[in-house]
């Protein structure tokens, strides 16, 4: 065999070195690519999909402008919870500085409803309000506890318009559940008023259990809760006791054609169909029960009678887009564009005990 020249051997050695370096670089590149893919898959599995939502500055559904913000916030909150990929929701209360009882209860009920729908399959976090009083309201109603985890430290300030808030909720007709929120003021309430409040609450619970959840709520979630829930706030302040009751059913305007078709025909004949406030008003004025049985009360009339019979206080009913207001001097009905998708009933009755007045004023 012919021997290779020195020059040829040199070129072969150089070529082998080049090929070896090329092969080494290719192996390193493949290892790095494989590592990146492994890390990417690991990160994908461990990443928590979260969504943040800003709460409105004021939780108030009496004012038209703030009502729009509250209704939109609740709508957006439902959309987030409806997503199957969401694992964490962050509610940002940074700019919130006002909580009015009825709108706050609507939010509290909605959040409870959504948590029940997810069956604890979602983590709720929050950014607390900068406003100290607003943060204390969330403490008082149990929002921070509802979120789980470590509870925020309470403020050292004792806000008079916060510390008297009481919360109750249930899924049966049982006045004893909310008795603590009312009986505490038995000595400061005229007896007809306290009896009327209990009758009104009993009727509100009955309407919730028997009528409110008769169909699926039109909120886009297509979710029917296993229990027919109601929620309640109460507060005594400035010589008045306020009680707010809420359910997240289909609303009085939607139950009326189903439960009381004869009333719906009356409205239709008068050309009043389409106005939620008119549905509420005629449901209140109707004195017949669905079963015509005694001992079943007078329907929504009992809710208003606590005010009309004593000529004292105020009752306000929100149901979907309609509002009914009754006080000592007037009856007002109106309709707004946004629907609360449920029913809120608000009573405000005077406390009459003078010693209590002095304690409140001090």
What report would you give on this structure?
The protein contains 12 helices and 12 strands. The chain has 362 residues and is an alpha/beta fold. The chain has 2 domains: 47-152, Transcription Regulator spoIIAA (2-Layer Sandwich); 166-362, Heat Shock Protein 90 (2-Layer Sandwich), CATH 3.30.565.10. The strands form 3 sheets. It has a 7-stranded antiparallel sheet, sandwiched between helices. A hairpin with a 2-residue loop joins strand 7 and strand 8 (240-247). The model is unreliable at 288-297 and 354-362 (pLDDT under 50).
Total count of domains: 2
Estimated helix fraction: 40-55%
List the total number of helices.
12
Residue runs with pLDDT of under 50 for 5 or more positions? 288-297, 354-362
- The first-to-last residue Cα distance is 118 Å
Structural class: alpha/beta
Count of DSSP E strands? 12
Biggest beta-sheet profile: 7 strands, antiparallel
The second-level CATH architecture of the largest domain is 2-Layer Sandwich
- Average of the residue pLDDT scores: 83
The sequence of SSEs as H and E is HEEHEEHEHHEHHEEHHHHEEEEH
Strand content: 15-25%
* Rg, alpha carbons: 31 Å
Overall outline: elongated
- CATH T-level topology of the largest domain: Heat Shock Protein 90
Enumerate the strands of the largest sheet in spatial order, edge to edge or round the barrel.
6-7-8-12-9-10-11
